[in-house]
Amino acid sequence: MLNVDALERNLRRMADDCRAAGVALRPHTKTHKSPWVARRQLRLGAAGVCAAKVGEAEVLVQAGIEDVLITTDLVPATMERALDLAGLARVTVVLDSVAMARELGARAGRRGVELDVLLDLHVGQQRTGVDPGPAAVAVATAIAEAPGLRLAGLQAYEGHCQLVPDPEEQRRRAFASYELMAAGRREIEAAGLRLPWVTTAGTGTYRLAIEHGMATEVQPGSYVVMDTQYARVRPARFENALFVLSSVVSTNREGRAVVDAGWKALSSDGGAPAVRDRPEATYEFAGDEHGRVQGLGAVGAGERVWLVPSHCDTTINLHDGYVLVGDDGRVVGTLPVAARGRSA
Amino acid sequence: MLNVDALERNLRRMADDCRAAGVALRPHTKTHKSPWVARRQLRLGAAGVCAAKVGEAEVLVQAGIEDVLITTDLVPATMERALDLAGLARVTVVLDSVAMARELGARAGRRGVELDVLLDLHVGQQRTGVDPGPAAVAVATAIAEAPGLRLAGLQAYEGHCQLVPDPEEQRRRAFASYELMAAGRREIEAAGLRLPWVTTAGTGTYRLAIEHGMATEVQPGSYVVMDTQYARVRPARFENALFVLSSVVSTNREGRAVVDAGWKALSSDGGAPAVRDRPEATYEFAGDEHGRVQGLGAVGAGERVWLVPSHCDTTINLHDGYVLVGDDGRVVGTLPVAARGRSA
Fold first, then answer.
1. Interface pTM (ipTM) of the complex?
2. CATH number, domain at A271?
């Protein structure tokens, strides 16, 4: 269930925040996986959108989205598909190694395609990205020198800072990442290269990135619908818009309801879901297709329980579609999760 | 990736074990979610198949599978769909409350449909099922008396015993469940009702259920492809047939590879996946679309890493299809995960 009124308010708030700060907004579509939502984000002023994988970008571009940044580094198995897309839309990619820069450059050159490339810089997440310093300068140089590739800037995502609960600790860690980003940029520009585009940040940190001032663009995703993990982190500027509607299938124990939503309907990587409007109720996973809910009081089999996902991205990825409702709970339509499962 | 040679050996071994024991085999399709695999199980002698939800049963029946037991208790929102299916195939359902027995009976009676129903008996899993004793007798009586419903037997699933690591402890707990099942059956039969069909057990316990001798039927699912959780539990009679093929996307740290498979390609409810043929390598989730693998030695970006899921059911449910390979690794075809996401 997706509350489209709450969605619309979230989209506007983020667009307003970025416009007021003079920072470009490039929302990450890995959360909602819907070209329809992406199009609304663009109409509200987004500079473009992000896709996590080439498979997600294919769905977006084929639906008519015209400016997509693929935020995971390409490998040979995905390069030709990315180059195919570059014939249909403005597609930007990220790279973190000299070898892959040479490989992509050779392939782009052979096909006569010109592609914007961001250097993927590591600023503390322990995931992808080359470290600032000579290694980063070498990769930037390889991108700039490769036929068919244009070095357009830096991606330096501080994903490890998104869910830090303490605001001061979060600020300290995020700023440490932005300083690494700034240092990396200085070293590369000292080598005679230009990096006009600097992209980072998610829902948990976009305000910190704006405050720091180094990034030209932020790429938040989860703000569109939120979840219980993000609700615990500032900014609490966005509303929960996403629910999984479950049914009580058994009331065989006093004080406990068994519902028909388990690991296959709700992701568990962020912990258990919450029950909407019932903070005293607790949900516990009970297998692929079941959960146990305590603290609902008297309920009967067949009653509906609205669950609030702990992690929106991975829960949405379990479903083929959304049922769209308004603030008043009335169903206003349905929408496919068009890029569901596009992990390659 | 699904190794169809290993799959075929697993299907045959389970069929042989059940045939030798004189116990009916009704494999659970919630693992593989494929009517093609279900059909092979039936050709090898299975009495029918199980589906977890009405949505899964719809996919199976519409694909031509003729005998399906839906193992989750029906609620009003799913009853009409189940009755629709009963016009197309032999559909059996489970119930654990007097109220739902009356509700389903009234609906079946109005439509002139006759339906086999199993009493869902609770034997220790703390999920669905009515407790043995007067409550179970009352539900069984309500089923037997409802127009359109035929009381056909008991479902008493000991799901809490499937992954108990110590074999003696597992045997003790499973037998305690079978004794509850036997006691519940005696009490109901003492009330003048007959329960010829008794179904229970999964991949972790089917041998124990056979040894106990009370069940007429077992319903294992995971044996078809196995996973790292089940590989740790006896019987180790089945081969791993399922892999997620990932690519190294970054080698920015000595001794560590970042691969392009995270929570959206591999379920985490059963822990981290293993690396095929590399017991010394360890995988750690690094977000929606990434994982960190230590201990691979020297690898380059673009190299393939075969991962072994920790929990097959929930990992298969993340994917739209299988790539089928033989023992020799050659691709022999593709197969949709037809019932993916059918959680209602």
1. 0.95
2. 2.40.37.20
